[in-house]
Amino acid sequence: LTPTPVILSSTTLGCNEFNVSTCESCAPGSQYDNNTLLCTCCSHPGLCIFPGACLPCKKGFYQSLSGQQECLPCSRGFYTNFTGSPLCHPCPAGSFNNNTGGESCTSCSPGFFASKQSSTSCSPCALGNFCNSSSCTQCQLCPAGAEALQTAAKACTPCRPGMHKAPRQTLCQICNSGFYQILWGQESCDICPENHYCPSPDVNPILCPNDAFCPKGSTAPGYCMETFFRKAGDSCELAPVTIALLVIGGGVALLFIVLLILRRRRETDGELTVARAPLLHKERPQGRYYGLPCDTEPVYAGW
Hints:
Elements: E1 5-7, E2 23-25, E3 30-33, E4 38-41, E5 47-50, E6 53-56, E7 61-62, E8 72-73, E9 78-79, E10 89-90, E11 95-96, E12 106-107, E13 112-113, E14 123-124, E15 129-130, E16 140-141, E17 146-147, E18 157-158, E19 163-164, E20 173-174, E21 179-180, E22 190-191, E23 196-197, E24 206-207, E25 212-213, E26 222-223, E27 229-232, E28 235-238, H1 240-276, E29 288-289, E30 292-293
Antiparallel strand pairs: 1-2, 3-4, 5-6, 7-8, 9-10, 11-12, 13-14, 15-16, 17-18, 19-20, 21-22, 23-24, 25-26, 27-28, 29-30
Transmembrane segments: 238-262
Organism: Nothobranchius korthausae
Keywords: Membrane, Transmembrane, Transmembrane helix
């Protein structure tokens, strides 16, 4: 643009752009007034900076005051998409702007979100959450039976066989011991039925062998101890050979106890017989023996 020449004094008339000896351009932030032939300040915000003219601020810039010499760039997270703007607008939730002087905001990509206005970046969805569209303001938890194993997920994947996920859980969980699940994308596991066992949570229940028993929730068949027990319905009972061994063993133990009692009694009777026997008088030569007359009766001292 060509600077607009204006008269500097009200006494000087008839100036034009070629009469440079008496005319000058209006200062930045002002413009020529044809009525008064004087420079006047730009009266509207968003107009400034060109010598001799009031020009609108370009996109991405603003000016909230009148008569200013320059426009200001929009801060990060803000934008303005038209000229002559007196202010900048915050980027709406679900979008961002990481540069100053922004003319627009960028929508968050799928798998990312911005929950607040004036965001300078988008955040990735956390584990177990997803966003399958652009401009997400928040991520959603994967539904029951599905999970997201990585951050910034655009979609969820179903739980594998042998696993499950309840509605409020984040990731799929392995079925508990004694439970199974052979389908994809399930929110619960099934207990292993009676007369079956489930060694792995991702296979069908296996029929219990005839010589074993399997209550509900079994992970392996239960067997009775070979030789000594045998299966009887849902439990084990003593085998005939075990009963015979118990009878024989009990008889031997009883006989041993009887013999032990008899032996003890015989030893006790022998001790009583010895205690009741009279002391025998022993002839000793006349005279004195250890300071006592030899004819003195012996005294039992308990030895």
